[in-house]
Structures are given as C-alpha cells and as structure tokens.
Amino acid sequence: MAAQQIAVWLDNAGSAPQPLHVGTLTCPAHRSTPAAFAYDAAWLAHPQAFALEPQLPLVAGPQYPAQGTLHAIFRDSAPDRWGRVLIERREALDAARERRTVRNLFDLDFLLAVQDSSRMGALRFQSGDGIYLSASEFAVPPVSKLRELQALAQRIQQDGIEQLPEYEQWLAMLMAPGTSLGGARPKANFEDTDGTLWIAKFPAKDDRYDVAAWEYLAHQLAGNAGIAVPNARLEDLGGGYRSFCVQRFDRSGSLNEPRRMYASAMSLTGKQDGEPASYLDIAQVLTDQGARGHIDADLAQLFRRLLFNISIANRDDHLRNHGFLWQGDGWRLAPAFDMNPNTAKREHALDVGGAYADTEGALNAAYATHDFYRLSAAQANTILEEVLAAASQWQTVAQRCAISQAEMRRMASAFGLFE
Questions:
Q1: Are the CB atoms for 220 and 336 separated by under 8 Å?
Q2: Residue 261 · residue 77 · CB < 8 Å
Q3: Which of 33, 193, 237, 323 is the most exposed place for a label (fewest CB within 10 A)?
Q4: Which candidate, 314, 338, 317, 313, places its Cα nearest to that of 417?
Q5: At what angle do helices 377-391 and 359-367 cross, to 10 degrees?
Q6: pTM
Q7: Are 324 and 298 in contact (CB under 8 A)?
Q8: pLDDT grade, residue 82 (50/70/90)?
Q9: Is 240 helix (H, G, I), strand (E, B) or coil?
C-alpha cells in the first residue's frame, strides 16, 4: 500500500462561507508509523488562520506528532472505545468475507473510518477522489429510529451474534451513527425533529442501575449550578433502563449547516494519556489561548465546574472530558459533558488543587486556588455557595427523574457532603 494524501478541511461556522483547505495529512503505507501534517500555503496566508493545536504551529513543511501516530487534534476527530469496537467488527466481517486475516487497525484507520456527517468537530478529511471520509450508505437516522438503534446496540454486544444472518445489516446500521463517538458505552447519533444532531447513550449489557438517569440528574444539577450545558432529555426506549440523549454542541444548527471547531483539553494542554494533569492546566489554556473578551468569564466557569465535579463526585474528569470551541480569535470552554456521579473512584482524574482526604477537603483545596482563576475570595465564595445550593437538591431532582429509592441509597455516598 502506498502513502495516502488526505486533504484536511475546516468547515467551521463563522470562518468562511465554504470549507477552507487547511492542509494535507500524509498517511504512511504502514499505519503504525507517524503521519505527517503540513499546512496549506493558502491557509498560512489566510487572515483567519490559526494553529490547530499548540503542537502544530503555523509554519510551512511537514510536522510529525511528538508521540503516537497522529497529532492530538486529529485524535479528537477519531472514535474512542465504542466507535472502535464497531470499526473492528466491520474489519473482522470484511476479512471473513474476503478470506484473509484480520488487519490490525491503528489510529489512522479509525480516523478515516468515521462517518463524515457525524464526525466530531469541524475538521473534515477528503480523499483524492473528492469524497469526504468516510461516506456511508446510511444517513444519520431520525429520532424515530432510536428504539430500533438501542435494540441493535444491545444485540450487537451479545456473544455469538456474528453467526446470525442479520449481523452484517445490523452492524451497518450502527456504523454510520456510532463510529464518531467515544466512551465505552453503546451510543448513536440521531437527527431530532428540528434537524439538530443529538447523541443517544444506550444502556450497556452489564449495567446494574439506570446509568442514563444519573447522568441526566448530574446534567440537571449542573445547569442549576450555573454551568453551561447543552439541551438534554431522558428517553425510555424499553428494555428496563433508560437512554440519555444530549444535543451535539459542535454543530451550529441542522446537519447541513457549518460545524464548530472542537478541541479537547488533552489537545490544547499538550498532555499525553496517563500524564499527570490538573484543572490549572486547563485554566492555563484559557489564559494563554482564550478568546479575547471571554477569558475571565471562562475561567470563572471552569472554577465553577471544578467545585461542582467535586460536590457530586464526578471523578472521571480527565482531560478528554473537557473541551473547547474556536471563537475566531481564541478558544472558549465548550459546554460541560460526560458528568456522572461516581462511587467507585476515590480520587479525581485531574488534580483539583492539592491533596485531600474527603469531599470537604477537596473543596477546600480547590477553593484555595481561586486566584489562578482570576477570582477574588468573595467571588469564589459566591460560586461555591451557588454550586452547593444546587447540588444539595440531588434527592429532589432524583425523584423528578423517577430514580428509585434503592438507587438513591446506592448512590448516596457520591453526595455525602449533603448528608
């Protein structure tokens, strides 16, 4: 296989009427070796040009990732665990049909296999024949297909499902709406009745409680605490547990309208998976790369999220669970997402500001860092009071979400601050 040239386009709302050619990604014949990215000369000269990430400065010539096979910003456009599962199953199916061994898939393979219409962010990848990758015969399904998609997602997780004659069709129906998405839980993109793009997170086969309901509860509490969150709702699609549905914040409107350039905190901090990181690293991104006129507001919002995550034990708060949207002259915090009370983890993925023994200690450590968020003690105290007032209502919100008393008792330790 020869090296492949992939054109990288920016289809960002507010940047230009039509997508802009940003540069070229050279995919090596051996996918296990790093891919080079080079900015297009026209992009370097464009008045709205910006570096896709700090590790890709606006200079001419090929640039290689410091680690791995792809720059972090391109990994943000690639799938995580659920999407990779679907792509790997597709490869296994193709290999069986073609009577060959299953290929090992690498980051580049996963990146280029994502369905274009639902790819995360505003970067689009185009092959030499002018087709955006990856094209699919299946469009993003309408909301009316959610019940069927959930049933398929549950069936596809069962052992031995590959032997059924319907398997190939089921997998194809899940590939288009599901390959762009991260996380381990089964999920799918769908088009709501107003044309907007949403994500449905379905129950997993080994769930022991209504996971979606608790994510929705955290989402509601966050909104009540003054945290920016996208539209969301719970859907009962049958099968016992419910599905959490949330609107995609990286779209400016309907499916056919321009997208919004997204980058994870992992990309903009320059950190690697497994490397120690903190909320102050995210604050530094805003200080150094934030959109003019919004830095102070976004720092205050980040501080609010820090306190909120501590108060509800949202401890899986790693850098990929924080993100940014390009504003035109800098980055702004994206709406909060993937917030879940967690009783299994004892510590936050990110350093909150120092050592702590319990939730109260973590809050005290975080509060002591308010200067780094450009907040006075009085401002920080007001935010803390607002966050705690909202989070303390978790039982009332749980009842509104029709969460059982048994599940509330199970999750009570996540809200131990309010006992």
A1: no
A2: no
A3: 193
A4: 313
A5: 150
A6: 0.95
A7: no
A8: confident
A9: coil
